[in-house]
Amino acid sequence: MLKIKAAEARSWVDEIHIVESNRTFRYGDKPYQFKLEEFEKSEPHIVYHKLDGTTKFHGAKKWGVSKKFPFFRKKDIARANETIQRNMVHEVLCPDDDDIIILSDIDEILDSSRADELVRATQEFGLLSVRMHHTMFFLNLYSENWHELWANAPADYAYRTFLMTGEIYKRLPWTSDRLRRLGEWGKHTGKIPLLDGFAGFHHSWLGDAEAVKSKLLSYSHSINEHGQHILNESGEISIEGLKSLIESKQSLFGGHDLSIRTTEEQSLLPSIMSDLERFRPLLLTSANTADK
């Protein structure tokens, strides 16, 4: 994902800042996955921020006061972990007023063919968001109704990725994580400008069943938010169930509709379209089978 993100950014972005913790969102131990040596000579420059979850969360409260009965409950350490990683940007960036800042997750990638338009619009509005194609498991298996699964969520995966000038960034009334959370809840709709058309892709859950299971176990969301079809009779995540979903092109989420669009029907990111053979294992044909 980072290689795709870097390829799309090469012509118009100076730096990509990556934040990684050695803890999962569920606060389990995990190794650092990012290998800086693979990107030492890359453009744009990759800046890697390692977070030590053991230090960051030392003494973190796992229990706390609640507004609802019994008024004392286990707190959501997963959300706290995710928040700390997203908000790391405020500790490491001090841009000039005319710089442009892009806040996004690693799998949310802006289309380089719209770079000039994105820059001009950001300079004009100061702060804006974009619509993104949302795919699952494969690069061209598209979500059709993601916003219908979550109350008040904006359509077209909007208000997750934000662009802003350095001047606006330095006086944002929200942290990076809060800006995004409010976007997911539809609180920015009609208040923050939204660029016309689709400006990129959110390529989610790429990988095989083992990779999907690993993400689920470290995920910041509750397993209960997914369909029961991902669990076995013991209530545990089923590898066979995940394999079946991927093979049948069905979502992890109940009520979530997915459909295949060939590259003739919908172009992908320029860095992918220019090297389709490399990405062939992650592409589907209209016959609903994976190209091998």
Structure write-up:
This protein is α+β, with helices and mostly antiparallel strands. The protein has a domain at 207-282. It has ten helices and eleven strands. It has helices spanning 2-9, 53-56, 77-87, 89-92, 115-125, 166-170, 176-184, 209-218, 239-248, 270-273; strands at residues 15-21, 45-51, 63-65, 72-74, 100-103, 108-110, 127-136, 141-143, 162-165, 194-204, 258-260. The radius of gyration is 20 Å and the shape is globular. 23% of the residues are buried.
Q: Largest sheet, if any?
A: 5 strands, mixed
- Structural class of the secondary structure composition? alpha+beta
Q: Provide the spatial order of strands within the biggest beta sheet.
A: 5-9-7-10-6
Number of strands: 11
Q: What share of residues are in beta strands?
A: 15-25%
Low-confidence stretches: 57-66
Taken in chain order, the helices and strands follow as: HEEHEEHHEEHEEEHHEHHEH
Q: Tell me, rounded to a whole number, the average pLDDT.
A: 87
Q: Count of helical segments?
A: 10
Q: What general form does the structure show?
A: globular
- Please give the alpha-carbon distance between the first and last residues: 20 Å
Radius of gyration: 20 Å
Q: Helical amount among residues, as a percent range?
A: 25-40%
Keywords:
26% helix; two-stranded parallel sheet; globular; 292 residues; five-stranded mixed sheet
